[in-house]
C-alpha cells in the first residue's frame, strides 16, 4: 500500500530565491482542524513582498511556505470536526505558522467553506485573504462597523459605501459583502474593469485615473443617501487615501475611511482630523467572530445561490510546485482585475 507524501515550495531564508521544492511533513489534523489536498493556490501581493522584502516571517520561521489562498478536497479531519467530511470540496485560507501555506500538496487552513459543484477549484482559490481582509475592514466595530450580511440577504438600507479599487481581490469581495448586507455600492477602478464592478453589484462606477474623479464622485453621490463610509482596497499610495478622506469629508454620513493597509504602516501625512481612519488586521476578526460569521453559513449559501461570485477572474499561470516561483515573480509586477493561480492537481 503506497504512502501519501507531501511536498512544498519553501522559502528557505530571508529573501532567498528561488523557492526550493522538496519533501514536507504530512500534516495531521488536531481538534477541529482539516487537512486539504490543494488543487489550486492563488497569489496575493503579500507573497512577493514576503520573499523580496523579508517581512512578516520571524527569524526562526524558516523554511517558510508562501500562499494564503487555496482550494481543494478535504483529505482528513480532526477528531472534533463536525462540519466537514473527507471528500468535501472547499475554499480555504492558510493557518498561522510557517508550514501552513498553500504552496504545497497538503495543507491545514485556519478556516474553510464548502464550495458547490459549479464553482471550480481555480475559482474557489481566489477568495481567502481578500474575503477575510474585506470582512475585517467592513464589519468590525473598530473599522467601518457595517451590518453583517445574513443568509438570504439583507433588505436595502439606503446607505452608500464607496469602494476605492473595486477590481482588486479585496475590493471585489468588499463590494459583494456590502451589497449583500443591504448597502448601495459605488466603486472605482480603471475603465477597463467597469464591467466587473457592475457584475458584482456596483451601481455607480468611476475611473480613478480620470482628472476630477473626486468631484465626479461627490456630485454623483451627494443625493443618493447617507454615506456608510469609504473603503480603500489599495494599500498605497498615500494620495489615494487622501482622496478618500476628501470624499468622506464632503458627503453626509459616516466620515470614516477603512483601509486595507496592514496595522503598523506609517500614518498618512496631513490626514484631516475630522476623518476617522482604520487599518486592517484580519487576524483579530477570528476572535471577534466576524470572520467565522462570514465564512460560515453565509459564504457557503452565497456561493451556492450566486450572491457571492469568485471574483476577480482567475488566470492560471503555471502547474505544479515548480511553477510557484515564476507565479510569485509575476505577482510582483502590475496585476489588474485578475487573480493569478497555480494549479497543483
UniProtKB/TrEMBL annotation:
InterPro entries: ADH-like_C (IPR013149), ADH-like_N (IPR013154), ER (IPR020843), GroES-like_sf (IPR011032), NAD(P)-bd_dom_sf (IPR036291), Trans-enoyl_RdTase-like (IPR047122). One of its GO terms (molecular function) is oxidoreductase activity, acting on NAD(P)H. Residues 16-260 form the Enoyl reductase (ER) domain. Gene3D superfamilies: Medium-chain alcohol dehydrogenases, catalytic domain (3.90.180.10), NAD(P)-binding Rossmann-like Domain (3.40.50.720). Pfam families: ADH_N (PF08240), ADH_zinc_N (PF00107). SUPFAM superfamilies: GroES-like (SSF50129), NAD(P)-binding Rossmann-fold domains (SSF51735). This is Chaperonin 10-like protein. It comes from Roridomyces roridus.
Amino acid at each position: 500500500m503506497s504512502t501519501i507524501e507531501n511536498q512544498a515550495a519553501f522559502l528557505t531564508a530571508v529573501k532567498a530565491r528561488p523557492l526550493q521544492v522538496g519533501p514536507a511533513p504530512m500534516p495531521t489534523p488536531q481538534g477541529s482542524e482539516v487537512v486539504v489536498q490543494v488543487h489550486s493556490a492563488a497569489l496575493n501581493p503579500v507573497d512577493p513582498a514576503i520573499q523580496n522584502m523579508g517581512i512578516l516571517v520571524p527569524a526562526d520561521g524558516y523554511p517558510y511556505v508562501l500562499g494564503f489562498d487555496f482550494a481543494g478536497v478535504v483529505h482528513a479531519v480532526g477528531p472534533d470536526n463536525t462540519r466537514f467530511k473527507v471528500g468535501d470540496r472547499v475554499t480555504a485560507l492558510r493557518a498561522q505558522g510557517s508550514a501552513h501555506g498553500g504552496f504545497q500538496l497538503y495543507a491545514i487552513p485556519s478556516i474553510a467553506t464548502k464550495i458547490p459543484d459549479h464553482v471550480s477549484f481555480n475559482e474557489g482559490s481566489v477568495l481567502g485573504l481578500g474575503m477575510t481582509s474585506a470582512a475585517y475592514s467592513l464589519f468590525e466595530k473598530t473599522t467601518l462597523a457595517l451590518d453583517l450580511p445574513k443568509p438570504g440577504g439583507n433588505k436595502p438600507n439606503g446607505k452608500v459605501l464607496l469602494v476605492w479599487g473595486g477590481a482588486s481581490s479585496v475590493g471585489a469581495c468588499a463590494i459583494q459583502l456590502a451589497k449583500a448586507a443591504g448597502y448601495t455600492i459605488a466603486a472605482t477602478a480603471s475603465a477597463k474593469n467597469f464591467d466587473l464592478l457592475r457584475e458584482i453589484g456596483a451601481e455607480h462606477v468611476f475611473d480613478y485615473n480620470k482628472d476630477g474623479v473626486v468631484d465626479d464622485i461627490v456630485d454623483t453621490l451627494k443625493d443618493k443617501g447617507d454615506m456608510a463610509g469609504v473603503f480603500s482596497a489599495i494599500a498605497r499610495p498615500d494620495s489615494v487615501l487622501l482622496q478618500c478622506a476628501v470624499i468622506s469629508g464632503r458627503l453626509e454620513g459616516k466620515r470614516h475611511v477603512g483601509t486595507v493597509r496592514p496595522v503598523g504602516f506609517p500614518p498618512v501625512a496631513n490626514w484631516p482630523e475630522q476623518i476617522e481612519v482604520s487599518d486592517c488586521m484580519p487576524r483579530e476578526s477570528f476572535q471577534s467572530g466576524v470572520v467565522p460569521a462570514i465564512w460560515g453559513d453565509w459564504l457557503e449559501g452565497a456561493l451556492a445561490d450566486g450572491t457571492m461570485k469568485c471574483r476577480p477572474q482567475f488566470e492560471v499561470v503555471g502547474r505544479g510546485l515548480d511553477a510557484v516561483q515564476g507565479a510569485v515573480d509575476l505577482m510582483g509586477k502590475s496585476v489588474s482585475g485578475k487573480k493569478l493561480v497555480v494549479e497543483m492537481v
